[in-house]
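Please, structure for the following, as tokens.
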Amino acid sequence: MNTVFPEGFLWGGALAANQVEGAWQEDGKGLTTSDMQPEGIFGKVVRRKPGDFCIKDKAIDFYHRYPEDISLFAEMGFTCLRVSIAWARLFPQGDEPEPNEAGLAWYDKLFDELAAHHIQPLVTLSHYEMPWGLVEKYGGWASREVISCFERYARTVFQHYAHKVKLWLTFNEINMSLHAPLTGVGLQGNPGKTEIYQAIHHQLVASSLAVKACHELVPDGRIGNMLLGGLIYPLSCKPTDVFAALRENQNWQFFGDVQCRGAYPGYMKRYFRDNNIKLQIEPSDLTALSHTVDFVSLSYYMSGCATAEPELVEKLRGNILDMIPNPHLQSSEWGWQIDPVGLRTLLNMLWDRYQKPLFVVENGLGASEKPDADGKINDDYRINYINDHLVQAWEAINDGVELMGYTYWGPIDLISASKAEVKKRYGFIYVDLQQDGSGSLRRSRKKSFYWYQQIIKSNGAALKR
């Protein structure tokens, strides 16, 4: 059997603006939901004052050091880098009629630098942040007004970068809004189910309008959605547990169903009826939803279990979701269960469901790390993790799944989203930065840097199977 990945398979890494850029108030950038949650996506809102410290304010200073970092990515052989645009760099309050030219210019420089190294950008329009002005003025995505604000932003970037960016994503892990509604849809306090799903509806409409705009303004481009791949197994073979797992999976598949099929599925209509959730849906919304994505992208870190008797087991938190642990799996330092075969299962599931190209745009292992006496980090645990997941991705391709590429999450150490930690390191590249903000920010290569370089160079043939 052929051991290489398909010709044209995209290899690279994935970053988010609010976790790497820093420069949180430079060049006219406005405040975002991320800036107002200095302790991460589950943290309380903090009214920022001059002099307040947040590790994300500087992050790894990608805003000023991107040429060095992109050079390192090119040394590894990247053919793709997933990045996000900070909406508030272009529209500081979110609803301005015209964009901030300084923000546009910075991303021009970023995309030009990538082009100079023959790295294709994959750009996420909204990755765990939105302008804080939209939260204060409109109540976030609870308001229909935000749809037009997002459409204006999307059309602006499509028009401006059409000749530089051909691959786009709308909302990062759009299904996480159910679990972190401030980060996902800009809702403060403790919103109820109706309020959350109404905001999600507005976001789904906005996503579809962005797809329509991309097809109009970037005719040779492709645009996808992005799902948090929360694969759930039944805890036992009891029929009730199997059905509980089906329902748990539908909780996140719903977002993909709307974005890929263009309509609300029957199981969600029943859920709304059973829970007395009545959404305000305009006829024009249904027309908008008919604009479906070209491909499906996903994150995958771990799997979990479901049971019809959840009171009998204890859940654990991993990658935003609370999951019942699988007794047959081991866990990472952060308690995230490691399940490479789950990636193959998930890719087959999504391919069978949507028959659209898939793209693994996040997968990675976070660990506490520091250089040894020789200044080296021998991260064999990361190498083993990625190797085993890539082998399963390759198996899925041989199963018939059309897989566009793989962008490892956090190819350079960054600030974690959930708790704004720098000690949880994912990178192939170590950044000298500590939680109190100290450190030289010097970049250095870990052992995995050279390993991933060989995997890309061989187009996957160097994987241990």
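The CA atoms of residues 387 and 463 lie 6 Å apart. The domain at 10-457 is CATH 3.20.20.80 (TIM Barrel).
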